[in-house]
Amino acid sequence: MAQDKTIMLPIFLSLLLSASDALVQDFCVGDLSAADTPAGYPCKKVSAVTCDDFVFTGLGKAGNTSNIIKAAVTPAFVGQFPAVNGLGISAARLDLAPGGVVPLHTHPGGSELLVVVQGTICAGFISSANAVYFTTLYKGDTMVFPQGQLHFQINSGNDNAVAIVSFSSPNPGLQITSFALFANSLPSAVVEKVTFLDDEQVKKLKKVLGGTG
């Protein structure tokens, strides 16, 4: 038996090292011409990768806040910044005009860390136990929103507010509760049942947000 163990040990070590070599690589810049998968995009050929692949300049410019929520999110997710493919990180810029709000929403694919760089932002989240955590953030303040939790950001000042956001996923996903309920074709009668709102309120919100039914 001791001899069998002696024989098996080098084989085991060889297999372990081979598996490690297969899993370890410096980077995997996403090939966006291919289909996305749960594991991310296939890697762009290393011979085609340049320094420019690792640089994203889009967060230096303010987003357009001329919309119903007076807010803009400029993402640096894998779709815009393929170098984050497989790295478990991404970023975005949040612009909030006075009165601007990012309504209750969730990122099913990752946790969020927000850093205020300008203005004042009221932000918070609601846990799965319906506990509420919210506060007012000022320049330099940071808040984290755990993965999958409903959260929001509101410009609570009189000037434009800006934040830089990072995520624990290259593609954290987004679902805004208000749009999920009132910006689609789900019949009003169903929405009324699941929200306890009356017909007039539901149809008003559908009209505002572009829903039908």
UniProtKB/TrEMBL annotation:
GO terms for molecular function: manganese ion binding. Residues 57-203 form the Cupin type-1 domain. It holds the Pfam family Cupin_1. It comes from the Eukaryota. Mn(2+) binds at residues 105, 107, 112, 151. Keywords: Apoplast, Disulfide bond, Manganese, Metal-binding, Secreted, Signal. It is found in: Secreted, Extracellular space, Apoplast. Residues 1-22 form the signal peptide. The keyword Cytoplasm does not apply. SMART domains: Cupin_1. One of its GO terms (cellular component) is apoplast. Disulfide bonds join 28-43. Oxalate binds at residues 107, 112. The keyword Metal-binding applies. Belongs to the germin family. This is Germin-like protein. It comes from Canna indica.
